[in-house]
Design goal:
The protein is globular. The chain folds into 2 domains: about 400 residues, Immunoglobulin-like (Sandwich); about 190 residues, Immunoglobulin-like. The protein is mainly beta. It has a 7-stranded mixed beta sheet with strand order 13-21-20-15-18-22-23, with no helix packed on it. A 7-stranded mixed beta sheet has the order 25-26-24-30-35-32-33. The protein is built from 5 helices and 37 strands. It is about 5% helix and about 35% strand. A hairpin with a 4-residue loop joins strand 11 and strand 12. This is Laccase-2-like.
């Protein structure tokens, strides 16, 4: 059966792949710890792309997978779309047309695509991305979300932590695809992810190496990767730091599925655009099973509920790591999370040839009625356009039923058969690849940190005194706030932290606060510490972190992402303030591996990881607006940090008198 499945995958991938014509295989002796030394002699200097979309086969040499990303200011529904807005469906698919939800707006794009170009490679390939920034006056970096960057911490893509921003110039990322799974890439600068800089990154491996039983699925096709995102009709910078009289404030206008959708004006209950406007469509055939990969690239505090009409979904992985299969009809994904699932098309009703995919924004955004649709189509040619199921589409007020759901907000973990939590998932295989161990819950951690996070509100008069300039967000009328972790608002340094040979007194943390952070004032500008929060960890330590929501807002939850590591989710609690510290440290076993986990509003999450990846690694809330006002920190993991590539660009303060 395995060989038959591999043959089917090969045939499907051969049909899907464009013939790029250039294949560069990696030699057996190439230097994984410093791959950039090998690139020149491998002959990639004058190339823009190589051929890597293929079936992953045991024993076949890994390849150099080269991509060129051109970053631009661009427009959705611009000149490339011709008459798309008038209902000419073919025009919506013209080269360089970004239809989005049918509303014209300025945006940022990579290669004039939304989402940006996908990366599909095999395990152990060398991913090389030439980033050319053509956005005038705007620096940028690209983060490879979920990639551990072992031996390549300089490639993590965080400005002023691992590199300088890329100005109107180019930068070459090079790193190994060492762990198979579903990941994604996105800008880590400013609010650029909100404006359109994101895309899929999938690392496959030979199917015989996967930990699931034979027959789990027949097809794993690149076109079945689903990127969910939120979308604003104005650039994000218009709302930062905020518009005091703008109601309802910073919120998206729509959800997009693979960059497509129909804008629905909830105030009129009518569609803003023609109902023939394109929706993302995914093609399958009957009597087969298909693996889908869902990436939540959203930036706002609006978690997404995902359902497929008349279909159950067997979840098999989260954040790239396999889990024991669990079947649900609904799951909820938070910004930064990924879920892989399998559908069996032999059980679908025979009286329908197309089914609705319904994505609903819940949690904080439930009151604003955001939802979006895509189509699961049976039997039509993949070039067919304008497919709509015969059934009336589900809506917020006429939803698909929920029988079993994973990750629902404020579900009580382990207390019922309808609601499953992250801690109900069980990790299988791959623990050693993540640098973790299955016994992390059975031994005492070397380091235990409780990290509360919240928002700090400033007195308006004190905040706007002459000579004071602090990052802030204005969310409603006179409410001015900054975010913090351990009561510290993260301040990016003038030069990347990774340039330093050892930690110094320019850093701070909860046990090492600078003098200016000792001041106490109610609502004053000095009442919150503002510095570069860096916690030093010894290489090899088992680290336990309790991420605790100490804020009073019980409507917003916070998805936290840790760079450089996957971690075991040991416990999810719903009420941080009512729990004693001893109970916060209680752990469960056989916990799932993730790199992004949602902390319930008012609750906490306990995670553990082994600090075996030397480097400087950010941990932060993955809501773009919260990161922008300081909800982040960094870990300096001691050890032998690899040297930077030759000629690695530097930046920093300049004062000729100092």
């Amino acid at each position: 059966m395995r060989s038959y499945k591999a043959l089917l995958l090969f045939a499907a991938l051969t049909i899907a792949a464009e013939t790029l014509g250039t294949i560069i295989e990696l030699p057996d002796d190439y230097n994984q710890a410093s791959p950039w030394h090998e690139l020149a002699k491998l002959g990639v200097g004058n190339l823009t792309e190589t051929d890597c979309l293929r079936t992953c086969v045991v024993g076949k040499a890994p390849r150099v997978c080269l991509y060129t990303f051109v970053l631009e200011y661009y427009a959705s529904m611009g000149t490339a779309c011709r008459n798309c807005s008038d209902g000419v469906l073919e025009d919506c698919y013209l080269p360089q047309c970004i239809p989005a939800d049918g509303v014209q707006r300025g945006m940022m794009s990579v290669n004039r695509q939304l989402p940006g170009p996908p990366i599909n490679v095999c395990k152990n390939d060398l991913i090389v991305v030439n980033v050319k920034n053509q956005m005038p006056g705007t620096g940028s970096t690209i983060h490879w979300h979920g990639i551990l960057q072992k031996n390549s911490p300089w490639m993590d893509g965080v400005p002023y932590v691992t590199q300088c921003p890329i100005g109107e110039s180019s930068f070459r990322y090079a790193f190994q695809a060492d762990v198979a799974g579903t990941y994604f890439w996105h800008s880590h600068s400013g609010l650029q992810r909100v404006n359109g800089l994101y895309g899929a990154l999938v690392i496959r491996e030979p199917i015989v190496d996967e930990p699931w039983s034979d027959g789990t699925y027949d097809f794993d096709l690149p076109e079945h990767t689903i990127v969910l995102s939120d979308w604003m009709h104005e650039t994000a910078e218009m709302f930062f730091p905020g518009l005091p009289n703008r109601d309802p404030g910073v919120l998206p206008d729509a959800i997009l599925i693979n960059g497509l959708g129909r804008y629905h004006n909830s105030s009129t209950s009518k569609d803003f655009v023609n109902l023939t406007f394109p929706l993302a469509t995914f093609h399958v055939s009957r009597n087969s099973s298909y693996r889908f990969r869902v990436i939540n690239a959203a930036s706002h505090p609006c978690e997404f509920q995902f359902q497929i009409e008349d279909h159950n979904m067997t979840l098999i992985a989260t954040d790239g790591y396999p889990i024991e299969p669990i079947t649900v009809d609904t799951f909820v994904g938070y910004p930064g999370e990924r879920y892989d699932f399998v559908i069996d098309t032999s059980n679908a009703p025979l009286d329908k040839d197309a089914f609705w995919i319904h994505v609903t924004s819940i949690g904080f955004c439930v009151r604003y009625n955001f939802d979006q649709h895509a189509v699961l189509d049976y039997g039509k040619n993949s070039t067919a356009l304008g497919i709509n199921p015969s059934r009336t589409r589900p809506t917020i007020h006429n939803p698909l039923k929920i029988t079993t759901v994973l990750n629902y907000p404020h579900a009580m973990c382990g207390e019922g058969s309808k609601y499953f939590c992250i801690t109900d998932l069980r990790s299988i295989g791959r623990d050693s690849e993540a640098g973790n161990h299955t016994n992390v819950g059975m031994v005492e951690p070397n380091v235990r940190l409780v990290i509360p996070f919240n928002f700090h509100s400033f007195n308006v008069d004190a905040f706007h005194q002459a000579g004071t300039y602090r990052e802030y967000q204005n969310i409603d009328l006179m409410k001015i706030r900054a975010a913090s972790m351990s009561n510290i608002t993260f301040k990016f340094p003038p030069s990347p932290i990774i340039f330093k040979e050892k930690p110094d007194d320019t850093f701070c943390n909860a046990t090492n606060l600078p003098a200016q952070c000792q001041k106490v004032g109610n609502g004053t500008i000095d009442s919150l510490c503002h510095c570069t929060n860096v916690v030093v960890l010894k290489e090899g330590d088992l680290v336990e972190l309790v991420l605790a929501d100490a804020d009073g807002d019980l409507t917003v939850s916070h998805p936290f992402h840790l760079h450089g590591y996957s971690f075991h989710v040991m416990r999810v609690g719903q009420n941080y303030k009512s729990e004693g510290e001893n109970s916060l440290n209680h752990t469960y076993f056989a916990s799932p591996l993730k790199d992004t986990v949602n902390v319930p509003s008012g609750g906490f999450v306990t995670i553990r990881f082994r600090a075996d990846n030397p480097g400087i690694w950010m941990m932060h809330c993955h809501l773009e607006w919260h990161m922008a006002i300081g909800m982040g920190m960094a870990f300096w993991v001691e050890g032998n940090i690899p040297s930077p590539p030759p000629g690695f660009p530097r930046c920093g303060d300049f004062d000729p008198l100092n």
